[in-house]
Structure formats: C-alpha cells, structure tokens
Amino acid sequence: MTVSPQHPPKPDISFDGGDLDCGNGLLLLIRKHIDPLDRGGLLEIRSTETSVDEDLPAWCRMTKNELVSFVKDGNVRSFLVAKGSLAERKITVGEAPEVRSGVTLVDVKPLLAFPAVAPAPTIRPLSVMGIGSWPRPRWMLQAVHEHMEGRLDEAAFHTTADDAVRLAVSAQIRAGVDVVSDGEQRRDSYSSFVASRLDNCQLIPLTDLLPLVDDPQEFERELRALDVPAGDVRHPALFGPLGRSRGIAVHEAEFVRTLTDLPVKVALPGPYLLTRTMWMECISDRAYVNREALAIDIVRVLREEIACLLAVGTTLIQLDEPVLSEVVFSGPANQRSFMCGALSAKKDSPAELAFARDLVNAVTAGFPPERIALHMCRGNWTTDETKALSGNYEPLVDILGQMNVGTLFLELCTPRAGEMEVLARLPDRLRIGIGSCNQKHAHVESVDSIVAHVERAIHLFGVERLLITPDCGFATFADNPLNSERVAEAKLAALAQAAQILRDRYRID
C-alpha cells in the first residue's frame, strides 16, 4: 500500500461511503460495486469514518483484494482497491477501461397473467427420489466460482452445467429413482443462488457479514465450531426492490425434461427462508420499511416462478424451509445453529411459525396442492451429527399440518429427528416423504433396514401416502458435499430396491 497525493491509476468505479463503518453496511456497498468488475478492476471508496483506516486494509487481506493506494485529504479518505490484484488488470493500449456501475437497479415488472398449468406424470406411492442437491464434479465447482466472479460468461457456464446435470440425472436413473432432479448443479447452494437470478440482488461472501453481528470474533469462533466453511458460503444481499425479470429455476426444469420422461422435481427456497435470509436492516431497509414488506415481494416472485415451472410440466415443486427447525430447536437450551436464513433476527417461536405458515400459504394459494411440497430438516452443512440441531417434530406438527401443500418431505432417518409416531396427527390429505437414509454417513444402509423403517411409516400413515427419500440433499452447499457421487448413487439404489420389495408386498402398481 502507498500513500500518495493522488491515485496513480484511474478507478473504474467510485462511490462515497460517507460515515458508514465496516460494521454498518460499508462492506456490503463495497461488495455491491466490486463484484461486477473484471479481475484487476479498480474501485475507489471514499469515507469520512476513521475506523475504516484499519478495517478496510484488514478486509482486503482477508478477501485477497489488493489495496493499491490510500489518499487522505482532511477528514476525507480515499482508498483504491483492485479486485484480486492490480497485476491481473487488462487494458488495451489506446482504450479506456470499461466503466461499470456495480449493481444496476432495475424496475420491478410483475407477471400480470400466469401461464396455464401443464399436465405432468403422476407420482405413484412409494416413489423414490432425492431431496435435491447432488455432489458437483470438480470442474463444475470451478465453473460455479468462475461464473460468480465474472470470469466465465453465462453461455459457457450453462454449457458446462448441462454436462454436470447429465451426469447427475444418469446416476439417479441408474439407481432406479422414480422422480429426478437436476442435482442443483448450477447453484452455489440450495438457497443463496437466487441472488444470481433475481433483480437488485447480489451474492456476497458470508465473511463480509461478520462485522454486522454483535460479536464478530465470537461468531467466527462459532462458525468454526459448527464446521461451517464460512469462506466458501455466499449470502444474498438486496440493494433495491426485488424483481424477477428472468426465471429462478425454470431453465433447470426445461433442461432436465430433455433428458428423461420421468417426473421432474425442482426445489426452491421457501418464502420464510428467503425473508429471513434477505432481511438485513443495514442494507435491505433502503428498499423496504420492514421484513413484512420484503416478504410481500418474495411471495410474488415465488408465485411467478411456481406458475412458470408448472407451465413447463414440472411434476413437483419443493419449497425448502429448514429454518423452521431453527425457530424451535435453537436457543439457550440448545446449541446455536448455522443456517444462512438464521443470521437475521426473529421473534418468539409461535409468532415466527405463524409468519412462516402464512407466507407458505400465500405462495401456494390457488396452485394444485399435489404439485407442491415442503421440505425441512435440522441442518445439512457437515457430516458431524453433533453440529446440527436435534428435536422431534412435536412443536412443529400442527404448523406443518396447516401448510397448504400436498407433500411433506421430512428428515426421519437420523436419531436427531426423534420418533416418527409424533407425526400421526398430520392431516390425511398430506403425503409424507419418509427420510429413509442418512446422507451424512458414508456407509450405505441395508435394504432390509430401509424396508423395516418404511414399514413403520406404512403402519402409521398407510402405504398410499408414502414417498421414500434421503433425509436431505447430498451437497446442500456446492463446496461442501456430504458424500461422493458413488455413495449417493448407492444410497438411492438401496432405497429403490427397498421400494420394490414393499410395492410387491403391498401390491402397488
């Protein structure tokens, strides 16, 4: 770093952070402006806050962005930061560098008329399927990172992702599943990927949020104790009104349907998860007065997406709401949980559960319930069972029964989920996806043990209401798969063999 009377290189983008400090939104604004730059691009940050003198160089070291120069004029500071390093800068002789403006806020244009629902194959009882995510090949992970960092364009990224999806779908079909997913190959995680698809939203590293918590050092220690790869996890940041000018996952569904005639399932982050994830007072309150106002737009974009997914023949749309477990199982009596959607504030459990129920029901209103499902678990970022939440479904069963969906996919294989008998009072209208293998364990469950597990559920719910799945996905976070493709395929194959035994036993066609 040098201190000079003026910055020798000219910045590509400049912005004024005023008196914001790094713990009060400045880092989010930096991320908003620096992410769209090419490697070597130059960002000027102006500030009047004294603490930035130490905090910004520390942020640069942590994020591996180069602090090129620092200028101080009275109480006004000017920092010139290169994305990556200045050595990576590419300038054509005789041409000025391209100037970009960071996140360009776009007008919100709601979908005025929903397309018609297209027919889809029926999902028969005891059908086997994954929850959603599948381990990504190493080259796919590289493409995800290069795409997020602006080093791989959209067309090249999707060409690479198409190959990864082909592999994931082929593995599922070899295993004998009845319903396929694309393995979420294009996503950096099960929920935060929406920031790369929605308007006025952007992905930022989780480490950028550390200054926003009450005690950053303590939170960093907790993340390490919980076995969370904080340096690899990204979080959605909202810089303006939420818009959906392109699909969130419609392109995923359309491509999978070119690969197979089997029913296709697509998972979307649920409205409560997204509201908890996106509401950060230091930044999202510039667009919304409170999280309830934000939730209205989240409901709108999810309804638009579901309508479009149904229109292209998606058989089943799964809303992921794992943070429901954080509402009832975390707190003083239980260990702290890491979930991206659990970083923001919450009210007491009854109020939060009612809020979540109302959001889900607002999203699903008017859609065919047999085409909509909800999934929840107790955390899926590590293979260490002691790091995830524990507790049976007793405090959740009534709220789950009030959700206007047709299917619940529930974690039920791990002992952390308690006994399935507490679910007996769920309404008969609900199908139950019984978690029947543990995606966290490398060993493959025996077919006999799966048959015995599912038969317990048959005695509780009846065979016609049951589907068979793992407890959760095999790679919720792209950079942190819980198992290999080989183990994931073997586990699904064991589920499929058990399902066939039970279909023969109970005469299910």
Shape: globular
CATH topology of the largest domain: TIM Barrel
Strand content: 5-15%
Helix-and-strand structural type: alpha/beta
The order of strands across the largest sheet is 8-9-10-11-12-13
CATH architecture of the largest domain: Alpha-Beta Barrel
Number of helices: 13
What's the multimeric state?
A: single chain
Order of helices and strands: EEHEHEEHHEHEHEHHEHHEHEEHEH
Rg, Cα atoms, Å: 24 Å
CATH uppermost class of the largest domain:
Alpha Beta
Low-pLDDT residue intervals, each spanning 5 or more residues: 1-5, 91-102
Distance between the termini: 71 Å
Q: Give the strand tally.
A: 13
Helix content: 25-40%
What does the average pLDDT come to? 87
Total individual domains = 2
Mind describing the biggest β-sheet? 6 strands, parallel
